[in-house]
Amino acid sequence: MNKISWLAVPTEEGAHEGVRKLWTKAEANLGFVPNVFRAQALNGEQFLAWWNYFNLLVNKAGHLSNIEREMMAVVVSGLNRCVYCAVSHGAALREYGMEAQKADTVAVNWRHADLSAREAALCAFAEKLTLHPAGMAESDLTPLRDVGLDDAQILEAVQVIGMFNMTNRVSSALGFIPNAEYHSKGR
After folding, report:
1. Torsion angle, CA of 185/163/86/59, rounded to 10 degrees?
2. Where does the Carboxymuconolactone decarboxylase-like domain lie (predicted)?
């Protein structure tokens, strides 16, 4: 296997039992094990705690659509220049049904994408919270409410944006490499 992280990556035999189960499930569902699953497996308990929260925010039914959550993930990851997350969540965005050209445009500069008012409000909010968290004010919620988001949806947006800012930093700090499979998904 090519190097996927700047840190050691445990072998299947050396990985935590819960991590091995997740690898098996990913292989069955996706046809491959995401490199982020392997790269973070060095600290098995911590990885599983991260995965449980990440999975709840991104992969389970929530207050926002899958496309909305993945779109914010791609915006945040692009702003943070996180290659792993921009590529892998760009693939997820396409897989959930966003047209490839639009998804690619969101990844580079969401302002150039043909977005609905709701999508644009979520992207603008994700951008401000990512780049200027200390400048957030109650008035930053107004554009979200103006496009119909309720408090539960706004909280979920904040949680997704926060999760991706953290995950981007882990992935970038340790040189995680996206799986080749992501580049062709949804095209």
Report:
1. 10
2. 46-127
Q: Letter for the amino acid at 155?
A: L
Question: Position 75: which residue type?
Answer: V
Delimiting residues of CATH 1.20.1290.10 domain(s) in the chain: 66-173
CATH number for the domain formed by residue range(s) 17-59: 1.20.5.810
Q: Is 166 helix (H, G, I), strand (E, B) or coil?
A: helix
> Per the structure block, which two tokens stand in for 148?
């119909």
Task: Check if the beta carbon of residue 77 is closer than 8 Å to that of residue 71.
Answer: no
Cα radius of gyration rounded to whole Å, the chain: 17
- Write out the two tokens for 44: 């098995």
Cα separation of 3 and 1, whole Å? Answer: 7
Q: How far is it, in rounded angstroms, from Cα 27 to Cα 40?
A: 16
Helix (H, G, I), strand (E, B) or coil at 170: helix
The third-level CATH classification (topology) of the domain covering 66-173 is AhpD-like (1.20.1290)
Q: Is the dihedral of CA 132, 133, 135, 140 positive or negative?
A: positive
| pLDDT attached to residue 110 | 98
Q: Are 128 and 111 in contact (CB under 8 A)?
A: no
